[in-house]
């Protein structure tokens, strides 16, 4: 079925780009985040997304993507019992979480793979980005993503973390590596940076092209306040700080060939993970030397006055509050602190911003 | 709401146990396979499962579990817009895949985690088993589950595998380990043995209690015929055999400290993975010495007549066709072949059978 449509209405909101009077091109292809063999959801070369959901006896099917708070995209029922619909405008490049609403209930799209975000496993869709090459799966040497279970006496359990070890790690038995501790955002978990962020592929590609020296990345679960919605105001960093500094780092330093010194240890995080990074790096100034806040706030000169920091990296998307990042960077620079910043063009508080931020940050780590 | 019910009707079918005149105990708890913080689905001490799904405007909500082919469990709508219902009888112990049907469409339960089975990401639920201790997460040294991306010229891509390395692997740099190549079933993928099967925890526990010598497990994707339904009749093992024997094994032997000899290499698989194991072990008799078919068929003496096999392990659930396993075992024994078999009591063609089979098989591997 050919389907042309003029996007008369368009609103600037999360994940949606303004597009006035643009004809929808009928070159839709299955999203790369679909389950194997699933034809829908689809995306076209302009960034429109199209959905197709089977629910023959339903009265209403909506998709949360498209117009954000305005109710997303309403699907229409065909005679075959399938509901279809296309977003009213093109989406931002990169990865988006979404879900569908069937007769008032929240479900996932049976065609899409699931990604942990918003404190639930959500559907995911990928709008091909012009710069997708830097996180593509290529024919280069690949590192590993290792799931470890490390003892956590403070939480009385074994906790999970994922550890990226670069290509060559197994062969170069005499080499020790710096470590980046990299945190996810609110409602996500330790799977986010690999699954949504492709952190391992970003690293493999940067290493293959010689842009960075190999290092290890450690990713663990940072929702220490667990499933308390709206609890960020009363956020207590202590439980997670204990897990990170007293339990995870010693375990990693014992079980991987690390350079076990603050001078070769970085912490960074996105969104809430940036807030955690700021708190922990300032509470424990002897543990990390490189700090990264990705859409996760800023440091002021007085924050880091008594701290031996080698680099502060600040970033966000151009659709967030880039002026805050720029102003903070300027102040830190003026005060003589080592700082670098990055604004991701055309993206919001979503993973494309953070994939790009990791790519920009990685070459600046462990260089001093 | 208290809810007593006499199970008047009861049918013997997949995942359901006969229970006549049994009162349903109101000691329901969230399934251990739920998403963090989700109250439903729940299970009680008798093995009943209870579901609660929000869909205020739906006309019909059913759960695929409960009475198998007879349409599963029909949920009833409450005034709060939530649909609830309890299975008509207790379920078999262990892990079950399921999905829900909302007004004719197939969706997952928003409360449950998802597991790849039936060629889609399905909801999963866990009925606590009397012997669940052997795959529990305990305070013992834990091995790693490492995601590798290995080059596959035959399929022109990098393919994913998961590699379990036992505790101590990183420290004992002079030790080399035997390897078990362990395959999933039809419609599953390389995540199944860790996620549904808890293979890593089974190994950690067996090693901690001194029941086995540590070995490596490698798990990769075996659906070489990809998403062709009903295609098992015309199954061509060649593409997967090439990936396994010519690409994966050399990569593992190069990148892990293995004993790279047939005498220290095993292959086993569940269901379709057993069929693949049988085909590959017989086509490539110089590659593996230990063979395991878990609910995956049998070997006849004439199959292995010209093969230097150190052990054949055959297993299935008591609700499958145990007489076939017993008969094949007897024939192999009479013909003088080294064979061991195991029947999992009270389980069907599901993961509890295979968790137990791995636990029974592991101590018999690499002992000759």
Chain pair sharing the greatest interface: A-B, 48 and 50 residues
Task: Walk across the major sheet of chain A and give the strand order.
Answer: 13-14-16-15-17-18-19-20
Assign the CATH superfamily of the largest domain in chain A.
Alpha/Beta hydrolase fold, catalytic domain
Radius of gyration of chain A: 22 Å
Which CATH class of the largest domain in chain A is shown? Alpha Beta
> Which quaternary structure do these chains form?
homodimer
> So how many helices of chain A?
6
Task: Spell the H/E element sequence of chain A.
Answer: EEEEEEEEEEEEEEEHHEHEHEEHEH
Q: How many angstroms separate the termini of chain A?
A: 58 Å
Mean pLDDT of chain A, rounded to whole units? 91
Low-pLDDT windows of residues of chain A: 1-18
Q: What does this entry look like structurally?
A:
- The structure is a homodimer of 368-residue chains.
- Chain A contains six helices and 20 strands.
- Chain A is an alpha+beta fold and 368 residues long.
- Chain A folds into two domains: 29-128, Immunoglobulin-like; 134-364, Alpha/Beta hydrolase fold, catalytic domain (Rossmann fold, 3-Layer(aba) Sandwich), CATH 3.40.50.
- Chain A has an eight-stranded mixed beta sheet, sandwiched between helices. Chain A has a five-stranded antiparallel beta sheet with strand order 1-2-3-7-6, with no helix packed on it.
- In chain A, a hairpin with a 2-residue loop joins strand 9 (100-102) and strand 10 (105-107).
- Chain A is globular and about 65 Å long.
- At the A-B interface, strand 10, strand 13 and strand 14 of A face strand 10, strand 13 and strand 14 of B.
- Strand 13 (144-152) of chain A pairs antiparallel with strand 13 (144-152) of chain B, so a sheet runs across the interface.
């Amino acid at each position: 079925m050919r389907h042309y449509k003029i996007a008369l209405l368009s609103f600037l909101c999360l994940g949606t780009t303004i597009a006035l009077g643009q004809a929808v091109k009928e070159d839709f292809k299955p999203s790369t985040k679909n389950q194997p063999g699933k034809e829908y959801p689809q995306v076209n070369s302009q960034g429109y997304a199209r959905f197709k959901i089977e629910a023959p006896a339903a009265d209403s099917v909506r998709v949360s993507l498209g117009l954000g708070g305005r109710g997303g995209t309403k699907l229409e029922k065909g005679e075959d019992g399938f509901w279809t619909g296309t977003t009213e405008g093109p989406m931002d490049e990169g990865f988006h979480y979404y879900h569908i609403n069937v007769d008032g209930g929240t479900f996932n799209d049976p065609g899409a793979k699931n990604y942990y975000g918003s404190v639930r496993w959500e559907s995911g869709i990928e709008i091909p980005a012009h710069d997708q090459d830097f996180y593509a799966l290529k024919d280069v040497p690949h590192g590993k993503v290792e799931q470890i279970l490390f003892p956590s006496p403070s939480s009385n359990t074994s906790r999970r973390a994922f550890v990226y070890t670069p290509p060559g790690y197994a062969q170069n038995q005499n080499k020790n590596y710096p470590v980046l501790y990299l945190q996810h955002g609110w409602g996500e978990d330790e799977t986010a940076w690999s699954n949504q962020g492709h952190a391992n592929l970003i690293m493999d590609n940067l290493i293959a092209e010689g842009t960075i020296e190999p290092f290890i990345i450690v990713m663990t679960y940072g929702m220490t306040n667990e499933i308390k919605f709206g609890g960020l105001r009363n956020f207590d960093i202590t439980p997670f700080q204990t897990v990170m500094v007293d339990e995870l780092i010693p375990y990693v330093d014992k079980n991987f060939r690390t350079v076990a010194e603050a001078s070769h240890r970085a912490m960074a995080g996105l969104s809430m993970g940036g807030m955690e990074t700021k708190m922990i790096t300032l509470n424990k100034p002897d543990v990390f030397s490189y700090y990264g806040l990705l859409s996760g706030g800023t440091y002021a000169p007085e924050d880091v006055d008594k701290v031996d920091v080698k680099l502060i990296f600040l970033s966000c998307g151009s659709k967030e509050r880039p002026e805050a990042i720029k102003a903070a960077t300027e102040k830190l620079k003026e005060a003589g602190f080592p700082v670098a910043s990055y604004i991701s063009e055309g993206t919001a508080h979503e993973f494309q911003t953070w994939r790009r931020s990791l790519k920009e940050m990685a070459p600046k780590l462990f260089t001093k």
